[in-house]
Design goal:
about 40% helix, 11 strands, about 20% strand, 3 domains, homooctamer, alpha/beta, 11 helices, 4-stranded mixed sheet, about 260 residues, Rossmann fold, 5-stranded parallel sheet
């Protein structure tokens, strides 16, 4: 709930337009909607944090995914459900016929035409990192960004990266997706001026410990300007990158 | 080394202005300087990544800190040495009389007057997180940002945070510094539209495991748009925040 | 075995009513019953610790579950078997036709009508935490408590929680069930006067490490009055909450 | 801020007694006080959570400890600063002459005469666990509880514990403080009806890993009704125990 | 190879009965046999360490298990293959018709009648620990020990254990098998004079971390005289217990 | 308390020689003594578990160590305090003039002449492991064993070990003390028939993680008959070894 | 790209044979080829690092494996794809009919006749380590080495190893493959002069933690000259061993 | 003991030149010497593994270091004691006046003039890694190698590394010493043909966990041909590198 809204409610109370009890209720209840007894949709999240609420698939029953999707779709043209496996999609596709499914990114979504803002580049170290990268890229696109993809340019053949240096340097924010030792984040961070969002992936084996090696590597990067998100969290990286990218075109909140 | 410079060197080779051997040498040697046999200063780092090289104090002898500081100061008005303990400062202060020492941030620095760009806010959960927050705040100031500080507003008394919500919402990027369970990053992330840089601190004890609890908490934040840096890494958070903040005022590299 | 019983046995020995050997036997054997060669049922557990013995499903064969269930049911109206998967239930349902199965809570139980004591509220951060919350809620109900459920009010949309603050403040003890970073436990702990039992869940991925992130977060909570149980341990949280809730209505043991 | 207070502020706004702006301000600012630029004291914490704010010593300068102590003491008769080492106490004792220091519990405090509520028992496995136990016991006393101490009754000589069983069974809530393998929590939990708060201590060596062994042991207790707090967190255990103990004598919040 | 044998070979060399080359060969080759190119059977292991070589199933193909079993059976009446799943057994049972399979212990074996030595008792905390306990018990029996079983006497109902104290005190060596927090090992260790072998099991969930909680608990036992083996390693516990039990009846090696 | 004693107390109650209340008291109080309010000495531990209670130094104040030592010495000729640093010894030596201090083993003790039983051998991998080995060796000697020492025979020069093979094979139980990778335990375990007690030490650095590498190595030993104790726990290894060694000379408890 | 090639490109620029733009392009683009949008093949990797690029199977779709294999095969007679499961092979074998599949090593490959260089020996502790050993052995053979195999000679029967000592001492580099405690690496390292590459395997259970025990053991080896690769990384060990083995026959790069 | 020596001893036994008992003794005792009761020097280690025994300082008393140093020096011109702190050196320097101390490498040594073999290059990421690099470099020099040093060329300014590429490519084996995220090992491994020995250092903080981040990074390197040693183990890296470097100049053992 933003300041403006608090002020409006209180002014309504002050003017007698609504009662004190109604004011208390308004302060709490407005921006959400209960779905069954299992979910409380936060319809104001876009206003407050810049994006609509997103459905994280794992741990939800198929029934729950469908119901929340429908409720969100009632009020938003763009709906995004992440980590939807192909098996789950097969079970629910008939009930959400207007939604599109991307099997690489494992995202189920609807989107409206919108103008895209240039500025985000997604880079991967290897081919195996692409599903996470596509989760990031598609999310960023749904959030209104045009995304450049540079895949399979890991440091074991570092000239593949250098070949794309001019492209990297055009970016406003770069998402580096890498498993194994995750060195690509440090190398990219040392070559560019823009912020770098590092996404460790669980690609690897043995002492990789399901992405821990890349995670620690990225957190300890000797390069400056690298922020890290959770292992395999392409979605989270895209959220952060989109917020950064849109800063340039946002008017100050104070200005309206 | 940016593309421009590679092109210039190659054009000089092409024109015969310099020999092939000189060209090879130029490609490699230009942007660095050896100090003793222990350091290679990267004088072009500012051009390439946006900041001059910074001295990380631990693991260096006092002699090495002084020498590198002097070399950097020869070519840059702004020099920053981080993690300089008061004991080390006592030993080297006479040799670097023009430098200023901030004992809370543990930073030794020189700075020129410069115009500061508004947009960065640093928030802490507790009083014990302030040294890390000050490392972040002072670093961001040395990098040309004006910094708002909001300290001791952790979630055990969450109204302290809400009281500062209007200030938080003015920020272009927020650095959240928190130890213990680090929940403040998630709460702030759920309340604002701008990017959040989360810095776990080692404040805590027992199963905190020197900051691991806050680190994992922040990496797993249920809020969107949170990027994490290393435990106690106020410096790194500031680098990232400054890069984000300056995106708004940067002309495109391609445009010149 | 309580003091009263030790005293009675010894008095019987002292009076000659039973022999010394019988006294020794009585001290050891009374409150238990062997089932096959694989289990020793502790029929006095209710007297000693407040609840009858409970069957923890994993690691037991279906045959063992059925046999122990039957023996417990012979002597107790309320029997509870936890972590019973739907597959196991399918295999044993015909042999325990009087028992009820809750597939969300994964509990198989019988219960008698009983008066329920108000006071326990179960809160979840997300929809994915509901199975653990239902294990807690149903267990608490079987132990004689009326349970209020407040689900999907995590900190990424903190106003959803605040909307339920009046409900939270009615509770005598609150069970907070949360995965990911588990910040909800700290936020609730900072807002209420009553004890909080925090249950980390394994909801999450990557550096969540199967619930470790939420566990550490909750153990390091900056809020006071938070006790933590094992990851996904809804049952254990309910035991503790029920003991706390019933303290108010218990007469002192010394008084009878 | 409790519901009552929100209602009063809103009624004042509704009646015109205060302006809308004043109402907004009142909602945010009332219950806190800034100290220097390093702390925001939460003077209403007692109303909201049952205890006044407590000073956690580590990470604070001596100057900060003194200033916060004084501010809290201005408004509360009972002030508690935890984890104050004897060295720190030596430096600040003259500035806080009215405060008492307990070197075993490492607590600096002031307290008013108050009636104490029976019900809390603190048990330790060994002599080395006593400092943590005393932190718990003294904190509970400052919070208005009478505390029974049963020390050095670990399971390597389990009859020492059984000898105290009648005392244990009188308790309304038991705090078990144990290092090494922490088995005492499970054994006590299996013998009593009341809630058990388990505090792992860092007493031990090698694969104890600074309390991790006892922590995991307690979280995995086979006994019911055991809640765990952080390693060495005697203070936190006392907060939780005191809240539980006082439930019996609290009138319902809804009743006034 | 024992000293006696080295001496015999060297005496044969000294007397000219065998050549130097034959002596070298004899020193190295005698006690082993190659099977295919994948195994080298150590036929002298019984002489050297007290038991014949044992087949550890996991990681071996069914073909390899059968071949090694047959080779061992050619020279030993007692053969033991551990960790043989029912699925594997189904595939190989026809090829080893003389072998017996125990599905609880997951052991495939042959054994000769032999006199059994009393002295080993196997204790479990719960019913779920029985498969590991049976691996231990059956192994110990195959190694010539009579085994007493005391199952499901964990510390949550400690009187179940005390009821069996006279039985426990008859043992020469006790194997304690426990999952969850593993407290039973400490409690038993505090009650008996004989050595205790503690076997942590992976029974549990969440912060049990697949047996780590019980393992650390047992390693940090406050009771004396407790030796620990790997998680779920019933076989290893039995080897150690059998060696200890047989010490009483062994003549000194030096004496023959 | 052994069975004999329980029977005697009950017979006394049965015969009227003592009252029921006295019987209850006798069952609980006899075998312990309170020291100050910080310790409860378990004077019957020797009867129950084979050794008198031992003082573990860390976490105890010097005052506490002295008082417990004196109380134990009043009733036992052999007293053992472990982990007593030279600094602590300096402070308390005058108050315990009859005690002997071993600075390598860090043990303070008194002992009576007693006949020693052969059978225990202590082996170390390196010179740095000797303090832990001496803690084991001296403890075993105080418990009535003659101890053979074989030091610095680690596997990097494995012939040093083979040279002592005849000595190793005379042992009834071997304590292997090793840091770094702890491979010596497996190698010794593969060469001897008797039980092996493995003590990992914290000798090493880096990924040794304070003894974790050796601990895991020993727990995963491919050799049979190896039991492990805590890192650096020479004392615990000696307790176990002594119990094993004395089994040969113990009359059956049932026989008297 | 080697120095020679940089020089040639620059000379071409200098001579006007190619333009500056062509020179820049040549510097970057030459040694790689894009496959679809998911891979960038590094065709010069052999020149730069000694081997052609290798396909790591996991994380790639079957389609991607086939396409990259075909592209590599177009330019290299020897192609190697590692970690190809039998299931994947079944799906792709018809599309790559010229390739050979080794089910033990899980490698799909093509190879040309080539002369093999003696010098590499692969040793395993157990039979279960053979798949990793075969991955190493076959990789080394494809890289032009003749490989000696010595399997199942672990330290629990150390004479099996000593029997092969003459064979071990012929090696120029030894790959030791071992799970469980991995002690074999230290023992071999203490017996030979040549470099040892240690490969921990995930063979084991419980506190083995999927190979961590062997990994830490090998990293902490008390023997000199041991280098470690990732858990189960037979391929990586072979790369390193082959590079070492070929050093003897390489002419100096400077010499041509 | 090499094969030659075993053969000689056995021939002496066969010929009657020595008795069987003398033969047994010779097989065991020859290559070692006891020092006090705390060390067994392995004088044949050079013959067997290529280097004389080395003294690892930590865990040894100053007296032990001096005695072992003297004994080794009696038989070897080159003696090396590692991890000798300046404080220890101050205490022992007068007793070993002929030894040289290097305070950066923390090595105390004696060396004879010897011809050095070119081929080893030591590279560091930062200035703080130099002490570990110098331990490696000096060790390698004492083992007969000429060492090239390339320091402070980490990936945050990757052109510093590329500038030295011609030097890197001259090496026969490269030791890469790096802390923080250790990415330098992967980058160097991707650029050169020769074997790379990676040494993680403990330089870093927070989630570096004392070198764990760099260690995992290096073990998971996407580049081929990288072997890893323990954290900060410059000595071990040098041993391995020297063995590799000397392979070229070794005659086959079989040839003499």
């Amino acid at each position: 709930m933003n300041d403006q809204q608090i002020r409006q409610i209180m002014e309504a109370v002050a003017s007698g337009a609504i009662s004190v009890s109604e004011g208390i209720k308004a302060l709490g209840e407005f921006p959400q909607e209960s779905v069954g007894n299992f979910a409380v949709i936060d319809h104001q999240r876009e206003i407050r944090t810049g994006f609509p609420e997103v459905i994280f698939g794992p741990g939800k029953t198929e029934e729950q995914i469908v119901e929340i999707f429908e409720r969100l779709h009632d009020k938003n043209p763009n709906v995004l459900a992440s980590r939807i496996s192909p098996e789950v999609y097969e079970h629910i596709r008939e009930r959400l016929p207007y939604a599109t499914y991307d099997p690489t990114a494992r995202i189920l979504y609807t989107k409206e035409k919108q103008e895209l803002l240039e500025g985000i580049t997604v880079v991967t170290a290897g081919t195996g990192d692409i599903p996470v990268a596509e989760e990031a890229a598609l999310t960023a696109e749904l959030m209104g960004n045009r995304v450049e993809r540079i895949y399979d340019v890991g440091v074991s053949g570092i000239h593949r990266l250098f070949n794309r240096l001019p492209d990297l340097r055009k970016a406003k924010v770069i998402i580096v997706v890498a498993g194994m030792e995750g060195a690509l984040a440090s190398v990219v961070g040392g070559l560019v001026q823009c912020p770098v969002i590092a996404v460790p992936t669980s690609v690897g084996y043995g002492s990789n410990f399901h992405g821990l090696a890349a995670l620690l590597s990225m957190l300890n990067s000797c390069a400056n300007g690298v922020g890290v998100v959770n292992i395999d969290n392409g979605y989270g990286a895209a959220c952060l990158a989109s917020k950064i990218n849109h800063l340039r075109v946002q008017k100050d909140l104070q200005d309206d």
